[in-house]
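For reproducibility, we list the full input for the S-adenosylmethionine complex.
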Amino acid sequence: MFDNYEWFKMKVLTLTKIDLNAYKERQMKRRIDSLISNSKLDSYESYYKLLCSDKAALKKFINYLTINVSEFFRNPEQWKMFQELVIPMVQQKSGRFKIWSAACSTGDEPYTISMIMQKHFPISKYEIIATDIDDEVLEKADAGLYIDKSIVNLPDEYKKYFEKINNKTYQISNDIKKYVQFKKHNLLTDVYPSNCDMIVCRNVLIYFTEEAKNGVYKKFYDSLHDGGLLFIGNTEQILNPKDFGFTSIKSFFYKK
Ligand SMILES: C[S@@+](CC[C@H](N)C(=O)[O-])C[C@H]1O[C@@H](n2cnc3c(N)ncnc32)[C@H](O)[C@@H]1O
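The corresponding predicted structure, in tokenized form, follows.
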């Protein structure tokens, strides 16, 4: 709709360190254009000026373009598989089993992992790190407040970890929160954590270009121990896992 998207992408990279070239262009441009129209502006230039002068607008922009829908036990079948695969791996490991929830959004995913792990193991057997590019979702994960929609797939046995605050909002228990370490991290530019036994990265790579996605797969490979697992999202599939050193062991699970 607006002209000068190339110029805008360059400016956004300098301002936010987010490289819009790595995201599928048609979809991203459409989203940004509608955000600009909704802000009652009519060009990338005027919107960029707003981003430079108004911190709240900049925060809103980053939060909007990163798309952060999430929920507890998203795609429950896959979490059953997660348990079947991970429990024996943790039992066999002598040290701590390291799980990285990459692009964790508001914490629903790493807290899902925390609940499952706590059911089966003491904290001396595992650690969970969780990262996202967006400060706002990390703040929400820290607050730990969720609306009822986020927990529709929560199995009954884990309901004890949610305290009802009002008719729509729940507070997650500190017993689950305290075992997840959150950190800001950009999958496209930052150094990756090392020595992981499992990387959970779901529902973010669908927004990346093929080139950006392939770069991420390579870096995930380097972050994992031999035999480590990569767990990806429902609509994602690595077409040529061997090119990256992975073997597909179940739908959505790849082994180094
Ligand atoms: C749709 S959510 C997925 C949340 C969770 N993994 C799930 O499947 O429910 C996508 C997340 O990816 C994050 N994200 C987008 N680009 C990113 C990047 N370059 N590096 C790290 N996180 C990114 C967004 O901020 C957002 O929280």
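The longest strand covers residues 224-232. The mean pLDDT is 95. Both points were considered when choosing residues for closer inspection.
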